[in-house]
Specification:
Layout (H helix, E strand, L loop, with lengths): L10 E3 L12 E4 L2 E3 L6 E9 L2 E9 L13 E9 L10 E6 L2 E6 L5 E7 L1 E9 L2 E10 L3 E6 L6 H21 L5 H18 L3 E7 L4 E8 L4 E8 L2 E6 L4 H26 L4 H18 L1
Parallel strand pairs: 6-12
Antiparallel strand pairs: 1-4, 2-3, 4-5, 6-9, 7-8, 7-10, 10-11, 13-14, 14-15, 15-16
């Protein structure tokens, strides 16, 4: 297992001492301690941390010159892994590393992975094909929960963009074959733009600093409803998800609903083009709703 990530002080005592004395060891390496010049006797070694107390009793020289004592304070580190848009990532191998030693586990269907580890400072890392796609330093002093945002790009936005381009391409073919009016083509074009707008950043901010060289960009997405901030310093990038207030999440959800209704109204106006007045009303309503969303 991993050695304790904090400074601990094992203490050896013996009831056979004429004067009770605490004997302290020398740390020879992380998690390994050396007691010297111990006379023949029965000893008790204790390690304490907060409310935890571990102890072991051994006899010198009968029990040899080496004893192992398990450090019982173990805490749960729960990590939720996200892609670059804020959607959870399942079946992702996650490593945590400290003092040159690593543990690995895999995220579940909800993108959550847990480790039971001693206190200390750990590097959480997600890798793909041997390349790091996300890492984060976290201190574990108690049961902890944290998020790890990776650079994985989701497939869904690409699929939606291709679908929107197919709509535009199909509309172009229909209008060239004179199977579609210019008004209907423009409506299809508007639907395609709405689809692209749903999966592209709804709004974004960016800034840069010269010394040290750093770039920070923030983007808000409708699907999923997240705000993602990417900070790049030199060659190192870190992605963070913002904690959205309930009111802002509701607002983004309302924008998404309005955009979806706009698409249905535009498609409906195409489907009922024989009823010109109703089609015109649906078109006007879609324009009004889209203006409100923007």
């Amino acid at each position: 297992g991993l050695p304790p990530g904090i400074s601990i002080n094992p203490v050896a005592t013996s009831e056979e001492m004429e004067t009770p004395t605490n004997i302290f060891p020398k740390e020879v390496e992380p998690g390994a301690y050396l007691f010297t010049n111990l006379p023949k006797a029965r000893y008790k070694i204790q390690i304490s941390y907060k409310t935890f107390l571990d102890e072991i009793t051994f006899q010198i020289p009968d029990d040899g010159d080496k004893v192992e004592l398990e450090f019982s304070p173990m805490f749960q580190l729960t990590t939720t892994v996200f892609d670059s848009r804020g959607s959870t990532v399942s079946k992702m191998a996650i490593d945590i590393t400290r003092a040159g030693k690593s543990l690995q586990n895999t995220t579940d269907a909800n993108g959550v992975v847990s480790f039971f580890i001693p206190v200390g400072s750990y590097l959480i890392k997600a890798s793909s094909d041997g390349n790091s796609i996300g890492e984060k330093q976290v201190d574990v002093l108690r049961d902890e929960s944290t998020d790890l945002v990776t650079s994985i790009e989701p497939v869904f936005p690409l699929i939606m963009i291709i679908f929107a381009l197919l709509i535009i391409g199909g509309g172009t073919v229909l209008i060239l074959l004179k199977k579609c009016t210019l008004a209907s083509f423009l409506k299809l074009f508007g639907v395609a733009l709405c689809i692209i707008a749903v999966v592209m950043p709804w709004w974004g901010l960016s800034g840069a600093a010269a010394t040290p060289s750093a770039v920070r960009s923030t983007s808000a997405f409708l699907i999923p409803q997240t705000i993602v901030t990417t900070t790049t310093v030199g060659t190192h990038s870190e992605i963070e998800l913002a904690n959205l207030p309930g009111e802002f999440s509701l607002f983004i959800f309302a924008v998404l609903i309005i955009v979806c209704i706009t698409c249905f109204l535009l498609l409906g106006s195409i489907g009922i083009k024989k009823y010109k007045k109703l089609a015109f009303v649906l078109t006007v309503l879609s324009i009004i709703l889209l203006s409100c969303a923007v």
